[in-house]
Specification:
Elements (H helix, E strand, L loop, with lengths): L2 H26 L11 H28 L8 H26 L18 H28 L5
């Protein structure tokens, strides 16, 4: 199995776990004399099976991320950390650029003018550069995911 396939399976299992949680919660409490739409015990057993599959799969994914490398010798784990930090920086800079672009409404010339402390264009240039780096890194990660075999 390739790492990319394992990541797809992980996402499916995580969605399934969340769905089972919702179904379980909706079927735990019933009016006296009524039966739940689904058996909560069966839902718990199904959830336990999904959790066990995740417990077996996740360490294999982590081992693959530690072993596999991108161009330049960076491990997938290092690249994923870089991607997460790029996402953080992008979120903050995008919000800052949007705020710097806001033009507060003034109803008369006697009102105080509000100006941006940093030009919006300067922030947007940084956003564009980080977004490009993020896209390129994501492409490298996707390629590595399809080339990397999942360890046992």
């Amino acid at each position: 199995m390739k790492l990319a396939e394992a990541l797809i399976e992980r996402a499916d299992l995580q969605k399934r776990a969340a769905q089972l949680e919702e179904r379980l919660v909706k079927n735990l409490l019933v009016q006296e004399g009524e039966a739940p739409a689904e058996d909560p015990q069966a839902l718990l057993r199904e959830f336990a099976e999904v959790a066990a599959r995740l417990e077996a799969l996740l360490p294999r994914i982590h081992r693959a991320n530690l072993r596999a490398t991108l161009q330049g010798g960076r491990t997938l784990t290092d690249a994923l950390t870089r991607r997460d930090l790029l996402d953080l920086r992008l979120r903050v800079l995008r919000r800052a650029a949007a705020t710097a672009s806001d033009r507060p409404t003034r109803y008369s010339n006697s009102e105080v003018r509000i100006l941006s402390a940093i030009p919006a264009r300067e922030l947007q240039v940084q956003v564009d550069a980080l977004a490009k780096e993020r896209r390129e890194l994501d492409t490298q990660l996707q390629q590595a995911n399809w080339l990397t075999d999942l360890p046992e």
